[in-house]
Description:
This protein is an alpha+beta fold. The chain is built from ten helices and ten strands.
Amino acid sequence: MSAYPDASHQLLYLQTAHAAYYLKWPKKQVKHQVFWRMSQAWLALDLHTNYQTTASSQAIWSQLASVTPLHWIEPLDASPVTRSIASSTARRYLLTPALANEGAPENLSEQALAKLRAHYQGMQGLTRSQFGSLVDPVFAIDQWYGRLRNCLEATNLPIHLVSAALVKAVDYPEAACVPLMLDWRWDQLTWQQGLPDTIIDLDAWVWAPDTLNWVMLEYLLAGQSTADMAGWVRDLNVDQAQLNAWRDAYRLLLYAMNWQGASDLQAWLNAPPLFQR
C-alpha cells in the first residue's frame, strides 16, 4: 500500500506476535516524480542512497536528536525480513516500528506550537557552510544561488516570475545551512494527545538555508494568531530582509516540487507573508 496517491514508497504493514512494523521501499518510477527529480538536479539528492541509516550516519542523527524535544524513528535491521523478497538486493528497504499515531489536530495548541518552535530552534543551532544530503553535503554555500537558479529555470514555471524572484534574491546571498526536511509537513510526525512526538520520515533530510524553513512555515502555520506568529519571528530570529528577498524564489520552488499539491500558482504566491514584525 501507499500512504498517499503520490507517495514515493510502497509500504507494507507487518504484524508479529510481539510488535508491529512498517517496511517501505522506493517505487520503481520514483526518480520520475517531480519532487525527487528536482531534488536530484538541485541537491544531488538520490532517494535510493539517501536513507542515511548506515553506521556512518549515526553521528549526525545522534547530534540532531540531542537538540530537539521531538523523537526520531529508529530504523531496524531489515535483512531478516527482506531475504525472502525477490530482487531485494536491487532495492533499498527501511524497516521501522509502527508507532501509535493520533494524527495532527486541526488546531495546534500553544503547547504543540512551543514544542515545534523548540525543534526548529534546535536545528538552527547546527550550522554548516555546505548544502546537500544530511550525511554528505557536497556543495559550498556560494553555489546555492546558481544551482537554485538552474533548477527553477528548468521548470515550466512562467519565466517572468522566476526572473523577478531571482532578481530579488541575488543581492542577499545565503550564508549558512541547517538540517531541515525538504518535505516537512505535520503528517511526517506522529502525534499523541495533540502534541508532536516522533519524526517518522528520514529520506529527505538535507542541509539548506534556514530561510527555506521560514517560507515552509508560513504555509504550515496559516491560520495562527498574530501573537503566535510574533513568537515564531522572535524565537527563530527571523531575518526580515533575507526572508523578503528569498520568499518568492522558495515559494516557486516548493510549488514546482509539488510540496503541498497546490494547483493554483497565483493563489500559492499570494499566501500571506506571516513572518512580518
